[in-house]
Amino acid sequence: MFDQSSAAQQHDTARPAQDWVRILANYRTPNATRSWFELGVTLGPFVALWALAWWSLSYSYLLTFGLSLINAGFLLRLFVIQHDCGHGSFFQNRSLSDWLGRALGVLTVTPYDVWRRSHAIHHSAAGNLEQRGIGDVHTKTVEEYRNLSTLGRLQYRMYRNPIVLFCLGPGYLFLLQNRLPLGFMNNVKFWISSMGTNAAILVWLALVIYFGGLAPVLLIFLPSTLLAATAGVWLFYVQHQFETTHWDNAEDWQLHEAALHGSSHYVLPSVLQWITANIGIHHVHHLYSRIPFYRLPEVLRDHAELSNSNRMTIRESLINVRLHLWDENSRRLVSFAQAKAAKAS
User: Fold this and answer.
1) pTM to 2 decimal places
2) pLDDT score recorded for residue 331
3) Backbone angle region of 43, left / alpha / beta, with phi > 0 → left and psi within -120 to 50 → alpha
4) What's the CA dihedral at 230, 236, 24, 118 to 10 degrees?
5) What percent of the chain has pLDDT over 90?
6) 322, 332 Cβ separation under 8 angstroms
7) DSSP string, 222-254
């Protein structure tokens, strides 16, 4: 939940969202040298930490485990680079972006072409109440929740429980669900993407086991993958799940308004902003997804309106976890308790 000052910022961008699209087009061109640099300073340390963690197995499992947790930050950053490849914003050459994304998908255990399609649907429908279900955190309206059976309410409460969303969910999503092109099962292209990624992961892990046994898998691969997955799910959650987010029925929904007002600006310390590759500047990203992640701070530097819009601190993001239902009357995300109180009043 935002505090009152933050909530007031939700619609402080006086300029219409469509006008911002034209302005933000000036930031869309990637710099090839900068892109290669960002890849190098992310992939290089990732590989080096993997090697160092493997070497440390001979001395201390605790040290190995600690190094793998540090490496989760670089793995998360690789995922954001893969994400930019999916938007065609990392290199001007789309084919180069796609093949880099597919290669990174082996490290992030994410079939690139399946994810890219799912994420494109998310961008094209975010905030549209009639197009929920693919690439989003499932959110029911208050009325929908009240119309559920007792079992249905229990299932929804379990799904929205933080233990399920942030402890069990990331492992299921990245290690299990990603192994099949769920939602796109009738498309050969996405089967090739999933099975090709699965095969590459199996070869990679088979080589790791052949040369090092199970220890590198259990103490390096799994901890770094699971922690990066958890951080990724958390970031995706806070980007759209906040009190003053933006949802509309299809007849009232506007793509750019939903992008600008339904995505947060997650204000993080400099180190975390670097690790997350500026993905917290999500309202700008949703408004113009072709902007490379390393140019997003330029937008905030040049446009104070956007810098001050939808700001969310870490403390506020933690409070937002208790909000679960969209109240169409108050146009707020509310908790189960608030929905119950509103019904009783």
Assistant:
1) 0.93
2) 95
3) alpha
4) 100
5) 92
6) no
7) HHHHHHHHHHHHHHHHHHH-STT---B-TTT--
Q: Which two structure tokens, joined as six digits, stand for 342?
A: 């509103």
pLDDT at 13: 54
Decide if 79 contacts 110 (C-beta within 8 A). yes
Query: Can you read off the two tokens belonging to residue 79?
Result: 């995922």
Q: Are 260 and 285 in contact (CB under 8 A)?
A: no
For residues 14 and 25, what is the distance between their CA atoms, to the nearest angstrom?
A: 19
Mean pLDDT by 10 residues, the chain (345 residues): 43 74 96 98 98 97 98 98 98 97 98 97 94 90 96 97 96 97 95 98 98 98 98 96 94 94 96 98 97 98 94 95 95 95 81
Residues in the chain: 345
Tokens 């750019």 belong to residue: 256
Residue 112 is encoded by which pair of tokens?
A: 């690139």
Q: What is the dihedral sign for C-alpha 288, 291, 294, 299? A: negative
Q: Which residues contact 196 (CB under 8 A, 6 or more apart)?
A: 102, 111
Please, are residues 288 and 24 in contact by the beta-carbon 8 Å criterion?
yes
Q: State the Cα–Cα distance between residues 8 and 123, nearest whole angstrom.
A: 25
For the beta carbon of residue 71, count every other beta carbon within 10 angstroms: 25
**8 Å CB contact between 185 and 111:** no
